[in-house]
Design goal:
alpha+beta; six-stranded mixed sheet; 24% helix; 32% strand
């Protein structure tokens, strides 16, 4: 796919209409949050203890009598999950005001209300101090924790520290405090924040993190530092730190206007790195994996990150982070700002021999990497409420991943994206995508499969793939580091296309209807051939029709999506000027509509 070099011109053409659109909207605001956190890791006991100073600025138009934080790993405490007799999560969260006076804390499921000594007025700021500890559990636990540890037979360890600190809940103009607790499947709704992080870890552990490392000369060896300065060279970085004796070392990081801060530590990690030139400067790519994952990760890990980043930078928008880090650890994959976990690993070695891996295992590693990297745009750059609208970011990431996968190889084993791939989902009852993740029959079906197919159909059959990418670019530029809802995106797309798409978005995202087109009747009139196609599935779709005449001639009709909008009974009348007998009529012969029933797509005359 060619790069979209004309995006700036496109932006100029849309400039006036975008300005008018922006002026018609309510004044936008979002809260400001600054974290200064010091955390100490105890790998032997798989525990973390932390102290955080949080500065919170209230940019809303109403006073706040409390601040609401979330510690998602409290879910596993509520489920009575323990490790070596110690319950998961945190036993308590302590809060103090700027005068070190303790503040009341009310725990509600995974949420913590911190009662302020006095209301925080609009345009005012406050500082509070938090103290907590966290007990990690195995990442491969049946509850599918996003944070936790993986142990190995040789005693080595990886700890994936996600959702590890008390994170301020989002407070926005639509919902105020969004008080939905974390239940396992729904993801997160956060503010953009600035972070100063100090991580105290044993000397023999390497730290991989989002954000910028501030004290590399203190934690890296000279060899590591020299290798990391090279550009455009894929290289393996020794993971011995500057000291391997007993004791602890502090790693200091900083991140500005980032949606989250995540890290991992390990004493058995292979580290590969490459610094590449992108449209707006240098970006460092890092992949960390345990030695037993080297068979697939050494071959494909860093290459998959680079392929994804370059594609997105060229075809969507400048890649938004300067450090992209991936850690392979057991358990589910999960995205964070400039950082991601991927759980796919592939086979381990048997007696030191190179194992055989399947095509599926190969593409799980590559595809899993591509998908998580893509999330750096939605929701990490354009913020969203993942807990309520998980289909928004997951659907876009899945569609963009499909494009990246096909650019990797036309025969890529893509899990979702192609219209045909969603047919098995829609042949059975499924939940509408615009449903809370914790209430879905299948999150994978409703938040990934169906939305990815919908975006693909919209792009290839209705408005054009290049047009959709251009519109997404403009939406990203307009909403970078802001919070959006799905309706903001659909309104934007509707405004800048010549096709009215409200019904398309309603059908695909707010209903659980399906595609089923049928040839209702074929008849010859004095004016020619008349074909009636009926939409019995509920979702209106553009489609092609192939007509085979008695002399062997083949006629093709293309029915655009807009033709449905003048119809009220779910039927379309198609005409062809001919008096020849018809041998066959087939709707959607190329199978691009996600039609769940191919049997009623073909009409044959009764004498055959």
């Amino acid at each position: 796919m060619k790069s979209i070099n004309y995006l700036i011109m496109f932006g100029i053409l849309f400039g006036l209409s975008n300005r008018a659109f922006a002026e018609s909207q309510p004044a936008y605001w979002q809260q400001d949050v600054d974290y200064n956190i010091t955390a100490t890791l105890d790998p032997n006991n798989k525990r973390l203890s932390g102290v955080a100073t949080v500065e919170y600025t209230n940019n809303s138009n109403q006073p706040l009598d409390k601040l609401v934080f979330e510690l998602p790993q409290q879910l596993y405490r509520q489920l009575n999950i323990s490790y070596q007799g110690r319950k998961a999560g945190s036993s308590e969260l302590l809060a103090f005001d700027k005068n070190e006076q303790q503040l009341p804390v009310n725990e509600r499921a995974t949420l913590f209300d911190v009662k302020l000594a006095q209301p925080l007025l609009p345009n005012a700021s406050t500082k509070i101090k938090l103290k907590w500890q966290l007990q990690f559990i195995p990442r491969n636990h049946t509850s599918s924790p996003r944070g936790g540890f993986e142990s190995f037979n040789d005693g080595s360890l990886i700890i994936g520290a996600s959702e590890w600190y008390p994170r301020i809940l989002a407070f926005d103009h639509q919902l105020g405090w969004d008080n939905l607790p974390f239940k396992g499947k729904g993801e997160f709704h956060q503010e953009f924040s600035s972070y100063t992080i100090t991580l105290k870890v044993p000397n023999d552990f390497i730290v991989a993190a989002s954000g910028e490392l501030l004290n590399s000369t203190q934690v890296f060896t000279d060899e590591q530092s020299t290798l990391l300065q090279r550009q455009n060279v894929k290289q393996q970085i020794p993971t011995l730190t500057s000291e391997t004796t007993k004791g602890y070392k502090s790693w200091r990081f900083k991140a500005e206007q980032q949606r989250d801060f995540t890290f991992a530590i390990g004493n058995n990690l292979v580290w590969e790195s490459k610094t590449i030139q992108l449209s707006k400067g240098l970006t460092q790519l890092n992949v960390f994996y345990p030695n037993n994952g080297r068979w697939l990760w050494q071959k494909y890990g860093l290459d998959a990150i680079e392929h994804s980043v370059k594609f997105l930078d060229a075809n969507l928008a400048p890649f938004p982070v300067k450090h992209m880090t991936l850690v392979n650890i057991a358990g589910i994959g999960m995205e964070y700002s400039g950082f991601t976990f991927v759980g796919f690993r592939g086979p381990d070695s048997i007696d030191g021999r190179k194992p055989i891996f399947s095509r599926t295992q190969k593409y799980d590693v590559i595809g899993g990497t591509i998908h998580e990297v893509t999330h750096n745009y939605f929701p990490m750059l354009v913020n969203s409420n993942e807990r309520r609208e998980g289909f928004y970011d997951e659907g876009l990431a899945s569609y963009l991943s499909y494009l990246i996968e096909q650019a990797w190889s036309p025969d890529f084993q893509s899990f979702y994206g192609a219209p045909k791939s969603v047919i098995p989902v829609m042949q059975s009852p499924f939940s509408r995508p615009a449903e809370l993740a914790d209430k879905l029959r299948s999150k994978l079906d409703s938040h990934y499969h169906v939305p990815a197919a919908a975006w693909n159909i919209l792009a290839k059959q209705i408005i054009g793939e290049q047009t959709l990418l251009t519109l997404l670019n403009q939406f990203i530029v307009q909403n970078s580091h802001k919070r959006t809802y799905f309706s903001d995106l659909t309104k934007f797309i509707n405004q800048h296309t010549k096709v009215e798409l409200s019904e398309f978005f309603d059908d695909w995202f707010y209903s659980n209807q399906h595609v089923d087109l049928t040839v209702k009747s074929v008849s010859t009139k004095s004016t020619g051939l008349e074909i009636i196609v009926e939409n019995i599935g509920g979702i209106e779709m553009p489609f092609d029709v192939v007509i085979v005449l008695e002399n062997g001639e083949i006629k093709r009709l293309t029915v655009p999506y807009s033709d449905w909008q003048a119809q009220f009974d779910g039927k379309l009348l198609l005409s062809l000027q001919t008096q020849l007998a018809v041998l066959k009529v087939e709707v959607d012969p190329s199978q691009q509509s996600a039609d769940i029933n191919r049997d009623n797509n073909v009409w044959l005359p009764t004498f055959q």
